[in-house]
Design a protein that fits this description.
A hairpin with a 6-residue loop joins β5 and β6. Helix content is 28%, strand content 32%. By secondary structure, the chain is of the alpha+beta class. It starts with 40 loop residues before the first helix and ends in a 12-residue tail after the last strand. The radius of gyration is 60 Å and the shape is rod-shaped. It has helices at residues 41-51, 74-115, 129-135, 188-198, 252-268, and strands spanning 119-123, 137-145, 149-150, 153-154, 156-166, 173-187, 206-212, 217-222, 226-235, 238-247, 275-281, 285-298.
């Protein structure tokens, strides 16, 4: 507070006596109450702002880190490659099986039509059959018949192996078969049934057929103590039965002519130029080896309707 004003003194006017003065004490004025000074809020705000790191205007903050893709890892790449390879293998395997089934069905139908019996077909594995099917070049095919008959020959089984088959058609053929080899097994009972069915009158008299491997002959027995002994032979690619002995009421030439007619019928029915190479007599019947080279597959259905399905 400022100090009190000092007492004042009136100066005397000239020519007038000075009147006594009264000193009046200045009235007491109470002090102002002490006031508490508060810091304005702006100061505190300014301090807080000063402690913060400066932020530049219009500057974007740091971008959030992008999560790394799990498909870019080496393990994911290897796994994807394995999946792709597995799918390719499955697809090729399915196509291979389908092609084998499709081609097998066609060849079975052709074989059954030719031999007039049931048949099974299998294919070689090199190269993969799907490639053989696409190119039309088959390396190896195996065919086996049911054993009921081969055309008119009852009780005959055919085991056939074909190689280098090319189904590349021309004007004259559907393709070629490089090599064909067949083993025909004809049982004694089958020979008896074949003779009985294809030799009217005489065939019905046949009672039994037996074989003698050591002599290489077969013996046909008929009623009335009739016996015909014949030796299977290969003559100019044809399988024949040459009579060596006849006993009974029938003339030898008559029986030989009847057997020649039967064997000619069987030989002429073989397709694809198949011819006999050798023949042998076993304990159970007769086994013949047949073959064909560079055989042309018929293109004309009138020649052999069985091959029209190829």
């Amino acid at each position: 507070m400022p100090p009190p004003d000092p007492a004042t003194r009136r100066l005397p006017r000239p020519g007038r006596p000075e009147a006594p003065t009264e000193q009046i004490r200045a009235r007491y004025q109470p002090r102002e109450a002490a006031t508490e000074k508060f810091r304005p809020p702006e100061a505190a705000t300014e301090r807080i702002v000063q402690n913060r790191p400066p932020v530049e205007p219009n500057r974007p903050g740091p971008e959030p880190a992008k999560p790394s893709s799990r498909w870019r890892s080496p393990l994911a790449i290897v796994l994807a490659a394995v999946i792709v390879v597995a799918l390719m293998v499955i697809g090729l395997t399915g196509a291979e099986l389908y092609a084998r089934h499709k081609a097998g069905s066609v060849l079975v139908a052709v074989t059954e039509c030719v031999v007039e019996d049931s048949a099974t077909v299998s294919f070689g594995v090199k190269p993969p059959f799907l490639w053989q099917h696409i190119t039309g070049h088959y390396t190896n095919i195996s065919v086996e018949t049911g054993g009921k008959q081969v055309q008119a020959a009852k009780g005959m089984t055919a085991d056939v192996a074909l190689s280098d088959i090319r189904l590349q058609g021309t004007e004259d053929s559907k393709g070629t078969i490089g090599s064909l080899s067949a083993t025909l097994s004809w049982t004694s009972a089958g020979i008896k049934d074949t003779v009985a069915e294809n030799l009217p009158g005489v065939g019905s008299l046949v009672t039994d057929v037996s074989t003698d491997p050591s002599a290489g002959t077969i013996t046909i027995e008929a009623v009335g103590d009739t016996k015909v002994t014949a030796k299977p032979l290969v003559n100019d690619g044809h399988l024949n039965l040459q009579i060596t002995d006849v006993s009974g009421p029938f003339e030898r030439d008559t029986v030989q002519a009847a057997l020649d007619g039967l064997m000619t019928k069987l030989n002429d029915a073989y397709p694809l130029g198949i011819h006999a190479d050798s023949v042998s007599v076993t304990d159970t019947g007769v086994v013949g080896k047949f073959s064909s080279q560079n055989a042309s597959i018929p293109n004309d259905e009138s020649a052999d309707a069985c091959f029209s399905q190829l």
